Amino acid sequence: PEDLITILLHLKQAFPKVSRITSYARSQTVARISDENLERMAAAGLNRIHIGLESGSDTVLTLVKKGVNKKTQIKAGQKVKKAGMELSEYYMPGLGGLALSRENAEQTADALNQINPDFIRLRTLALPGSAPLTEQFEQGAFDKMGEVDTARELLCFLENLDGISSRVKSDHVLNLFTEVDGILPEDKEKMIDPVRKFLALDAEEQMIFCIGRRTHRIGPISDLSNPQQREYVLQICSELGATPVNMDEVIDSLMQRFI
């Protein structure tokens, strides 16, 4: 703590107009720091912490060797808030695969309900070539979800957020729904609505939306009603050989450029 406080004080001296100093942190690290030292860090200028929660499910956290459990994740988040710093927590839809999808959504929502972070940021699972989880997927040991099942998990997660005032942000290229952006509880239904609408579409329409989003030809789900955008996406689907059956395989290849 002393080293970090020295750095923070120097930053404030060197850049007197700086308004935000942010750090990433691991839950297990924060949990070990005393409340007094966290408060000293906040007083020295550290005013936002980003934590990669990823999941609140102990089963999922063990699966991906995160090195922390749900209890410690909650403790760390609460300690950051108590110290007076802003807190961003990251949730990864799809991290548990299909078998643990509901557990991943419900347990993560439960953990965040207990933390009440300032921001909840979505980072949908992607599989870079060198990741151990990618190897498990290729060997058939991990059931990676496609777009529709991931949307179902996201809906379950949003529905289970309760009693908090966090800002939910879908601010990453890997996320399907740009409209999932708002402040709880007042914007909850507004954020849930596009996900429900997507899940109610038939397979052909779901494909058009997903391919359109992944090629940046479609933004919000309302763009599906634009004839010009639809025609452009249908042309792309034809060029890629995309069908409702192979949609996720096509999208996986498209998404590699973003990982």
Features:
12 helices, alpha/beta, globular, 6 strands, single chain, 259 residues
Write the layout of secondary structure elements.
Blueprint (H helix, E strand, L loop, with lengths): L1 H13 L7 E4 L1 H6 L2 H10 L3 E7 L3 H6 L6 H13 L3 E6 L9 H15 L3 E4 L9 H7 L8 H14 L6 E3 L11 E3 L4 H13 L2 H12 L12 H14 L6 H9 L4
Parallel strand pairs: 1-2, 2-3, 3-4, 4-5
Antiparallel strand pairs: 5-6
Count of individual helical segments: 12
Uncertain spans: none
Judging from the principal axes of the Cα atoms, what is the shape? Answer: globular
The spatial strand order of the largest sheet comes to 1-2-3-4-5-6
Task: Give the averaged pLDDT, no decimals.
Answer: 96
Cα distance spanning the termini: 34 Å
Q: How much of the sequence is in beta strands?
A: 5-15%
**What structural class should be given to the helix and strand makeup?**
alpha/beta
Quick one: how many beta strands? 6
